[in-house]
Amino acid sequence: MERYFNVADIFGENVFNDTVMQERLPKKTYQKLKQTISEGKELDLETADVIAHEMKEWAIEKGATHYTHWFQPLTGITAEKHDSFISAPLPSGKVLMSFSGKELIKGEPDASSFPSGGLRATFEARGYTAWDPTSPAFVRQDAAGATLCIPTAFCSYTGEALDQKTPLLRSMEILSEQAVRLLRLFGNTTSQRVTPSVGAEQEYFLIDREMYLARKDLMYTGRTLFGAMPPKGQEMDDHYFGSIPERIEAYMRDVNIELWKLGVSSKTQHNEVAPAQHELAPIYAQCNVAVDHNQIIMETLRKVANRHGLQCLLHEKPFSGVNGSGKHNNWSLVTDDGINLFEPGKSPHENIQFLLVLCLVLKAVDRHADLLRESASDVGNDQRLGGNEAPPVIISVYLGEQLEDVLTQLISTGTATKSKKGEKLATGVKTLPDFRKDATDRNRTSPFAFTGNKFEFRMPGSQDSVGEPNVVLNTIMAEALSEACDELEKAKDFDSAVHDMIKKLATEHQRIVFNGNGYGEEWIAEAEKRGLPSINSLVEAIPALTTDATVSMFEKFGVFSKVELESRAEIEYEQYIKSINIEARTMIDMASKQIIPAVISYATELGLSIGTIADACPEADVSTQKELLVKVSNYLREAKDALITLKETNEKAYTMKASSCEKANFYHSDVVKAMEDLRRPVDALEMIVDKEAWPMPSYGDMIFEV
Ligand code: ADP
Ligand code: MG
């Protein structure tokens, strides 16, 4: 890879972006496509044919031999089916390269192998992918060749959404409609659309690939199922923002180059809190593009790592006892003429529109806290949320000192008359300039924090798509906006109606605001007093998908039908069952084939050496060795018993005749517990058994030696 280059030259070079379209497409075609993109107008087949042809020519110049409809089924990762551009051989024996408008617009992958949660019987396998022209096509080049990737939405024969993208696009539409309605009431006649902007910060771990390959748990489940903490953990806090080692830097550089070529504006990178943990943040983009880009980021992080002899771990909690990884979803609402609805301005207390929008966010989050929590749940995140570093499991909103003060004024007197200002920050060093600090400090413990002109939802898991959290955010906000507009449009005196509404909302939803330490025990008790839901796991979160409040909201706005929601709940239960079953089986395999035999050999050797010493020198004191042997044997016994219990429990779960919901709950309560019971003695053994005898790399090997 080129060492020195100009980023501007390579940025977006593999993207069929606006510049390429302007250059390549006939003017009329370009204009029609732009209308489709900006106004959602349907594209006629003739225009699509022209676009497809130009897209193909461009892709072939980039070395592409195939094209694929790139989509996001409910597996959390992307899927693709590759077709080559070649047409049927001509009489001359040669082939032409062809790609029609129809092939661009619509694909028909066999849908039966993707999760549908009972939406479709397997004999009704038809599924369609439909081009999303608002997310640009791109050519992915790698060692395997080059492919034209066309971002698409994926739905069933009868039109039900089978992916992340379809509901996301629906939610963006309705949010825009409702937000524009509100803007009109405030006298804005120019903005035509309101689009959510999203910047998803991605956390990940990097370890040596050899070590990864030596651990079946990492290979099969993405996380370590056994492993004791090294003597040095992250207590020194010396990794966060620490200087980046050369090997990692070379990796990040390659990742950036790949991403830039694909038009992903990778911007920030730094070491995270835990050893071997890092973060990558792109510049925010339109919501659906950001969701696509996050998938590209995850793919790229994985792929490039292998080239560097590294393994990228995207699991939320690869190492127990070490900080987990999340995805901070930064979200704001911006008009097509550049107004951010979450921008408070210098004196928020006078910014009535902002205050109303803010209170509507509070209402939306308060009312649908359970659903928001559900949207951030996946199997891996169960290991992370509620730990001491990740956001707590309780949803609350952090507003910061300044806004909380404005809110308090509103609630107590009905009007806010002042906003706290940031003071001068005196560093005490003459040569450093004094600067004005922000009126509000940051809060790292809140799951949903206002950070200046956006909200940062910090709960989503690192390996999950951010599709669902954004569908939920967009829809709950659309609902709150719509209800406000219904009322305000009828009001005789708009100003006083808005005023009353702000006060009422602030008072009613004050309970969701929490500026304190979200990690403290006191908060759990306080949240309970306030009646905020505390949902500890994925299986407890799933029911939020099908409550009356959820169903009626999604149906009202046409984002999900009841059937689609039920199918999603079903898929999540099934995924939970499958994942825990794989984890349990992996533990059984490792314990019985690797760990227990290794410990038996170690114990045997220990016993033999005690015998040898006693024979050679009867007066030698072998009590230390004997104590160790007793300890090892006891833990071994405990591990063996736990292994048997785990086998039986998992078998019982696997063969259980019950609904997915019941089954998943059994896995959660019984199998997970049996797994923990096996892990405990094994981790204790790892601490006392000779390192040479342990059959796999330790935490210390993996996270301190990258
Ligand atoms: P942090 O506040 O977490 O330290 P940044 O301010 O750099 O970090 O922003 C983190 C992410 O938020 C980036 O992806 C950034 O592009 C995105 N972001 C910044 N402003 C907005 C906005 N108005 N709307 C959505 N995302 C934003
Ligand atoms: Mg952040």
Automatic annotation (TrEMBL):
SMART domains: Gln-synt_C
Single GO term (MF): glutamine synthetase activity
Domain GS beta-grasp residues, every copy: 65-159
Pfam families reported in the protein's UniProt record: Gln-synt_C, Gln-synt_C-ter, GSIII_N
GO biological process: glutamine biosynthetic process
Domain GS catalytic: 164-595
Coiled-coil segments: none
Family: Belongs to the glutamine synthetase family.
Protein name as annotated: Glutamine synthetase
Source organism of this protein record: Pseudobutyrivibrio xylanivorans DSM 14809
